[in-house]
Structures are given as structure tokens and as C-alpha cells.
Amino acid sequence: MTLSVPSPEERLEALLTEVRACRVCEAHLPLGARPLIHASATSRILIASQAPGTKAHIAGKSFYDPSGNRLRDWLGISEDIFYDTRQIAIFPMGLCYPGRLPKGGDNPPRPECAPLWRRRVLSLMPDIRLTLLVGSYSQNHVLGRGSVTERVRNFRDYLPDHFPLPHPSWRTGVWERKAPWFQEEVIPALRERVHTILAER
User: What's the confidence (pLDDT) of residue 151?
Assistant: First the structure.
């Protein structure tokens, strides 16, 4: 009797089921564990972000908040495309809402998360053509510690595989006004690269 070998798609789906059931750091999470990951074996663009916010946690949908609207505007894509895992994966450094800092803003992603899941999941996603490194946590994990502003300004140094971006929170509006080159140079190049990849199939 010949045993069937699971396809890459089946292996990834089994792993994602395991990821979504994770409760490793639940004791440290004020709203409990609800790992959010959107991915498939055919995803071509990976959004590596920070961690879900409260609205995303409640909805069970990453970037389901004003920061998501800002990010989709930067990319120049619709909500339907953004959440189409056949094309775009959303895999934050921390998969659960980590709570708030005493002086405002969210806590850092839980440190257990990326070492536990990241390599295993990405090994089953062979079609990724571009990883958007959104914010300091994903950039520091992939590229080592450094300045977000300098990396975003020098985004061409990281192409074709990576594209550093600031986190699209409301605070970024203040940053953008001080960095007109972001809208003038970075956004057009970002949209061109994203749309080229999405049009390849």
C-alpha cells in the first residue's frame, strides 16, 4: 500500500492550523491568544509587520484598522487584493495583540513568536518574490538593528527581495510631512514593484 505524500499546500495548511492554535505566551496577552496569519503556498508578496492591534484582534483580520487603510493606499491596491492570500501573505513578527505600553502605543511583539514559527512557515512559501518589512521590528529581525528612516530612504539597497517601510500608524503622518521624499520617491517605486509582481500570473 502506497502512502500519499502531502502536497506543499497541504503541509502549509496543517502548519497554519497549528500556528492558529498556539497558546505559548497566552499568560502575557491582555486579550488572550488569537494568532493572526494570512498566507498560502502561492503568495508572492509577504507583509512582515509588527503585531495585530486591538481592532485586528477583535475582527480576526490583520490591518483591519486605519493603519491598514494607510498601508493599502501606499501599495495602491484594493482591500480584496490585500486579503487575497493567493497573492499576498500577512505574517507579523508577533501573531497576537501584545497589549499597551504604560505611556501609550502597543507593546513590542512577544519574543517567543518569530523564533517559534517564522522559519517553519516561510520554508513552505516558495513563491515569495518580495517581502515588505513594515516597521522597526521586522526590519531589525531580518536586517539587523538600524534606522527605519535611513532604510526607507535607501530602499533600493534592499531590492529586489526586501522593501523597508515605516509602520503605517497615525504617527507616520507627522513623519511623512518631514520626509517629502517618501511620497515623491518611495511610494511610486513601491507601487511599481508590487503591481509588477501581482501582474505576473
Answer: 98
**DSSP H helical segments within the chain, as ranges?**
8-20, 54-59, 66-75, 79-82, 113-122, 136-143, 148-153, 172-178, 181, 187-198
Beta bridge partners of 164: 133
Cα 21 to Cα 7: distance, rounded to the nearest angstrom: 22
CB 117 within 8 A of CB 22: yes
Name the nearest CA neighbour of 200 among 45, 68, 37: 45
Give the model's pLDDT for residue 170: 81
Region 147-154 average pLDDT: 98
Long-range contacts of residues 147-152, Cβ cutoff 8 Å, at least 24 apart: 149/175, 149/179, 152/179, 152/182, 152/186
pLDDT of amino acid 105: 83
Query: What is the spatial distance between Cα 53 and Cα 55, in angstroms, rounded to a whole number?
Result: 6
